[in-house]
Amino acid sequence: MPNLILTCNAGSSSIKFALFEKEKLHQLFHGEIEDVNGTPTFWVKDARDQKIEHKNGLNPGYHSAILALLEWINSCSDEMHIVAVGHRVVHGGKAFVEPVIITDAIIKKLEELSPLAPLHQPHNIAVMKIFAELHPNIPQLACFDTSFHRAQPLTTQLFALPLNYANDGVIRYGFHGISYEYIASILPEYADKMAESRVIVAHLGNGASMCAMKERKSVATTMGFTALDGLMMGTRCGNIDPGVVLYLMEEKGMSIKEVTDLLYKQSGLKGVSGISHDMRDLLRSDAKSASTAVDLFCYQAAKELCALLPSLGGIDAIVFTAGIGENSAIIRKNICDRLIWLGLQLDDSANTSNATAIHSLASRVSVYIIPTNEERMISMHVDAKLLTHSISSE
Ligand code: ADP
Is 327 in the pocket of ligand 1 (CB under 6 A)? Predict the structure, then answer.
């Protein structure tokens, strides 16, 4: 069995992971420890997406979760060795414009960024520390969701606030950067002629955002200072008049905690439908509130796409990716029908069959479905930044 690269995506209640063999970067396994602090479950799927492990009864906590993962890896084969770990880290602030090798000093800097992403960053850091303690000799790399957007022009990173706030770090950071970077890296394989042109990538999952790219670099994105901005999401509100927040606190007496919970966890598809945060549930439902939520999601997606157009000076292609973008023909059509005036026409049968290119021959704007793979992007960074330097001499 091969040497392995482990990728980790630690969230507020789960750790998603994937294992790649080091030589060719083939993904061997992926899995998740869900409900880490509650009643954790651990599952693993193989490269054919078949579940090969499902375990309950783990002790709660991130430390136990990582121990369970390492135990499972050891139980597979004595020959499987983790040679490096790559972490998805939500926030790299202004400073981290590319992946960085994790040291104690880097962890301190990442901790300083925690107030900018309090729901995610502390968990990312906790898992790095657990690995450092358990396996101090295994190198670790941090890959940031914000880095891909740092080369944007100043104008698209600024809020219309006095500039001293921007100097203090109140800017539009943007997120989902690892996903966008992956799409940018494989765009030429899918859309050769379009790759370097004006492309908007729509990452539509539980979290949802869009990124305007020119020559495969981010020039603008819909998420801002936090991952609340932009599109309506599973449980997040997306773009909202900041006056609503002031009203809720001043007039309705809501606390910061209550407003945070409302905007992050009780809004979006879940809040509007009152049924579910999951798009599949809403598409199956006959309830009026479900179709209202779906329509608002699609309207807001089309509106946010249009708001990105000035950053590109037009548009040549749209790429749909992530759970909803890759799988839902209905949602893609609903969004694209609102953009017909751009000269965009879908090929309905290509769209329905989830083909790669789903625009009609007459369409002025090309439309593609490209599956994202953040874990693979992280493994590519680990290979490029860590292994080629530190392990090539082993
Ligand atoms: P995350 O942001 O958690 O990584 P995903 O990219 O996995 O999210 O996307 C999850 C979303 O994708 C959910 O709303 C789910 O309902 C939706 N989804 C997955 N498959 C389909 C499908 N066939 N049709 C509609 N929505 C789908």
Answer: yes
Measured by CA distance, the residue closest to atom 27 of ligand 1 is: 324
- Residue holding tokens 């292994």? 387
- Laid out side by side, the sheet with 366-369 consists of 217-221, 208-214, 198-204, 317-321, 366-369
Interatomic CA distance for residues 284 and 337, integer angstroms: 21
Name residue 205's amino acid.
Answer: G
pLDDT digits (tens, 9 = 90+) for 336-392: 999 999 999 999 999 999 999 999 999 999 999 999 999 999 999 999 987 775 544
- From ligand 1's centre to the CA of 367, what distance in Å? 19
Ligand 1 proximity of 142 Cβ (cutoff 6 Å): no
Are 113 and 169 in contact, with CB atoms under 8 Å apart?
no
C-alpha–C-alpha distance, residues 36 and 42, integer Å:
9
Q: For residue range 265-281, what is the model confidence (pLDDT) as tens digits?
A: 999 999 999 999 999 99
Q: Can you give the pTM of this predicted structure? A: 0.94
Question: At 266, which amino acid appears?
Answer: Q
Please state, in angstroms and rounded to a whole number, the distance separating the CA atoms of residues 320 and 298: 13
Closest C-alpha residue for ligand 1 atom 4: 205
